[in-house]
């Protein structure tokens, strides 16, 4: 058993399978698992004690069997991180969260993550592959040491979140369409599919950014949309690993930016 217990956080848990799964396999008896999601739960067995009490703050928590797990709903990931003590978190996960958060807020999220993570702790994000370059830049500007790994369908199946399953299903549908398509028209059809997917991604990202988006946010959107074709290739997803350096390395990284 490890010498000390860990605090593990998942941001944007959705229906919370991952954090529930992780909390079922603690490495230390006192490991603590914390999840947060902006949305209220639609999960059977959920209680909304605060609402029942007539209190204004809509925080909803499912009562999980594991005493080491707490999932807070109705709360923004940035506010959640802002409430955590400095250097108190050993691991942060965020799966398919980036496209829901505007650039200025992502910056704030990474800055708060840096503050609450212990030196040496790791943030792991899983996203569509077209987020790789943009997110890596954003995260490394905060002082993290970042690397990434392309993910294929088998990797995504292992991740096993609800959204991973949805993405996998549409990718498999795409492969099936390709298999049955007329080879002579396949390339032109794929061009149309990729263009359509880029356009709808742009609409989503522009809505998330809002009307007052600045130059930097527009450039971020362009960069992510330009990679729309990656969703149709062999590794449509990416895992981004960001490590908070030990103190001396962090100071020198920040002073050179
Ligand atoms: C695409 S879903 C992914 C859910 C889950 N991680 C998965 O892989 O199945 C994105 C989740 O992020 C949540 N979300 C969006 N913006 C958020 C924010 N600012 N803070 C916390 N959660 C957020 C949404 O409510 C949604 O549950």
> How would you name the oligomeric state of the polypeptide chains in this document?
single chain
Indicate the overall shape: globular
**What's the arrangement of strands in the largest beta sheet?**
5-2-1-6-7-9-8
The number of helices is: 10
Distance between the amino and carboxyl termini: 39 Å
Q: What is the CATH topology descriptor of the domain at 7-161 and 235-255?
A: Rossmann fold
Helical content stands at: 40-55%
> What structural category do the secondary elements indicate?
alpha/beta
Report the radius of gyration as a whole number of Å.
20 Å
Kindly state the number of beta strands: 9
CATH-level-4 superfamily name of the domain at 7-161 and 235-255:
Vaccinia Virus protein VP39
Can you tell me the CATH class of the domain at 7-161 and 235-255?
Alpha Beta
In the CATH hierarchy, what is the architecture of the domain at 7-161 and 235-255 at level 2? 3-Layer(aba) Sandwich
Listing every helix as H and every strand as E from the N terminus to the C terminus, the arrangement reads EHEEHEEHEHEHEHHHHEH
Provide a short characterization of the protein structure.
With 257 residues, the chain is of the alpha/beta class. The protein has helices at residues 17-23, 49-52, 77-82, 103-116, 132-141, 153-159, 162-180, 183-209, 215-226, 247-255, and strands at residues 7-11, 32-37, 46-47, 61-62, 69-73, 89-95, 117-128, 145-151, 237-243. The chain has a domain at 7-161 and 235-255: Rossmann fold.
Can you tell me about this structure?
The chain has a domain at 7-161 and 235-255: Rossmann fold. β6, α4 (103-116) and β7 (117-128) form a beta-alpha-beta unit. The longest helix has 27 residues, at 183-209. 45% of the residues lie in helices and 21% in strands. The strands form two sheets. Strands 5-2-1-6-7-9-8 form a seven-stranded mixed sheet, sandwiched between helices. The chain has a two-stranded antiparallel sheet with strand order 3-4. By secondary structure, the chain is of the alpha/beta class. α6 (153-159) packs antiparallel against α7 (162-180). The protein has ten helices and nine strands. S-adenosylmethionine binds next to β2 and α7. Residues 11-14, 36-39, 76-77, 95-97, 100-101, 161-164 line the site of S-adenosylmethionine.
């Amino acid at each position: 058993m490890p010498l000390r217990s860990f605090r593990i956080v998942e941001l944007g848990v959705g229906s919370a399978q991952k954090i529930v799964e992780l909390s079922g396999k603690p490495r230390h008896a006192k490991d603590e698992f914390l999840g947060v999601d902006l949305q209220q739960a639609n999960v059977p067995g959920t209680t909304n004690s605060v609402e029942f009490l007539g209190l204004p703050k809509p925080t909803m928590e499912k009562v999980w069997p594991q005493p080491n797990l707490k999932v807070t709903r109705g709360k923004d990931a940035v506010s959640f991180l802002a409430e955590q003590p400095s250097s108190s978190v050993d691991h942060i996960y965020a799966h398919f969260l980036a496209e829901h958060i505007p650039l200025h807020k992502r910056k704030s999220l990474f800055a708060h993550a840096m503050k609450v993570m212990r030196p040496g702790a790791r943030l792991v994000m899983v996203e569509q592959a077209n987020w790789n370059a943009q997110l890596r830049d954003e995260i490394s500007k905060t002082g993290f040491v970042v690397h990434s790994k392309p993910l294929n369908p088998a990797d995504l199946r292992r991740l096993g979140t609800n959204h991973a399953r949805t993405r996998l299903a549409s990718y498999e549908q795409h492969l099936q369409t390709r298999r049955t398509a007329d080879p002579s028209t396949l390339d032109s059809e794929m061009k149309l599919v990729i263009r359509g997917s880029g356009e709808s991604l742009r609409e989503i990202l522009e809505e998330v950014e809002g009307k007052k988006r600045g130059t930097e946010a527009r450039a971020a959107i362009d960069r992510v949309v330009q990679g729309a074709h990656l969703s149709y290739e062999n590794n449509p997803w990416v895992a981004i690993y960001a490590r908070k350096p030990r103190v001396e390395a962090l100071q020198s990284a920040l002073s050179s930016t």
